[in-house]
Amino acid sequence: MSIRLGIIGGGVMAEAILTRLLASQLYPANSLLVSEPQSSRRDFLAETYGINVTDNNQTTLQATEALLLAVKPQILDKVTSQLTLDAVGNYPLILSILAGTPLNRLETAFPNFPVIRVMPNTPATVGEGMTAIAPGTQVKPSHLALATSIFEAVGEVVEVTESLMDGVTGLSGSGPAFVALMIEALSDGGVASGLPRAIATKLAIQTVLGTATLMKETGLHPGQLKDNVTSPGGTTIAGVAKLEEKGFRSAVIEAVKTAYRRSQDLGK
Ligand SMILES: NC(=O)c1ccc[n+]([C@@H]2O[C@H](COP(=O)([O-])OP(=O)(O)OC[C@H]3O[C@@H](n4cnc5c(N)ncnc54)[C@H](OP(=O)(O)O)[C@@H]3O)[C@@H](O)[C@H]2O)c1
């Protein structure tokens, strides 16, 4: 079978994406080709998933549908210098997950190719990612549909204009760390209230997961959910009042805004 999807860089994100693509049967193993410099990593990917591997980035350009760039952003110039683009017979869709790497840089590196900039997040590794995609100038609806189907295999997908990518980075990109902090703090609060650590952490994780699932499945507004669980003079409203006193919501808002501004600065 011909190679439909090439991947340059066989690291953490590449593995997360390809495992889900295989599980969803969107791509059979023999239609995937990963280029990776480390031989032990190549062997691992080939043996674990039955996919094609190479140490030659150029061969990934034979992909008929898409080429996923999954190297660290600082490696991009090295990768593009290893590619001879004028020899290619087809123009697969370039999907870049390189954080902070703008479309104009990618389109300059891949002239005449359709390019989509993609921002996934860490929960993609368990199929619960949130991915934003921003199309470049050569992108057609069929390319957007292809990108959406690939990243829907690792979670949810939204399309945004590139100007919103820094906001995406501040929220869903950095968000897993903010939520992890919240879970740790909930667990600490439980321990401070006498719960064993293991039980406190389990309660904290399931409470965050369950609350998110409840809101996602019912469409409940966050404020409505909060109202539903705060009875007059009860325990929850006492806790909510303390969070307000300590500036919890303001701290979270400022965290997202600060991450957004940092993403803007890093992109300059
Ligand atoms: N992890 C996340 O949650 C996340 C979220 C959003 C976006 N991203 C983006 O995803 C990209 C990949 O991140 P990652 O966490 O998967 O990194 P990673 O695990 O370090 O993967 C990068 C892979 O590329 C390989 N590589 C290095 N030089 C190469 C070359 N010249 N040609 C081909 N492959 C080469 C590396 O091999 P060696 O190990 O041998 O160097 C490594 O296996 C980054 O640009 C990051 O900004 C990651």
TrEMBL record:
Determine the domain of life of the protein's source.
Bacteria
Q: Name one GO cellular component term.
A: cytoplasm
Gene3D superfamilies, A to Z? NAD(P)-binding Rossmann-like Domain (3.40.50.720), ProC C-terminal domain-like (1.10.3730.10)
One Pfam family name is P5CR_dimer
All copies of the Pyrroline-5-carboxylate reductase dimerisation domain together span 162-266
GO terms classed as biological process: L-proline biosynthetic process
GO molecular function terms attached to this record: pyrroline-5-carboxylate reductase activity
Pathway(s) this gene product operates in, as recorded in its UniProt entry = Amino-acid biosynthesis; L-proline biosynthesis; L-proline from L-glutamate 5-semialdehyde: step 1/1
Signal peptide location in the record? none
Q: Does the keyword Oxidoreductase apply?
A: yes
Q: Where in the cell is it found?
A: Cytoplasm
Residues that bind NADP(+), according to the entry? 8-13, 70-73
Q: Could you say which enzyme class this protein belongs to?
A: oxidoreductase
**According to its UniProt entry, what is the function of this protein?**
Catalyzes the reduction of 1-pyrroline-5-carboxylate (PCA) to L-proline.
* Annotated family: Belongs to the pyrroline-5-carboxylate reductase family.
Tell me the protein's name.
Answer: Pyrroline-5-carboxylate reductase
Organism from which the protein derives: Crocosphaera subtropica (strain ATCC 51142 / BH68)
At the highest ranks, the source species' classification is: Bacteria, Bacillati, Cyanobacteriota, Cyanophyceae, Oscillatoriophycideae
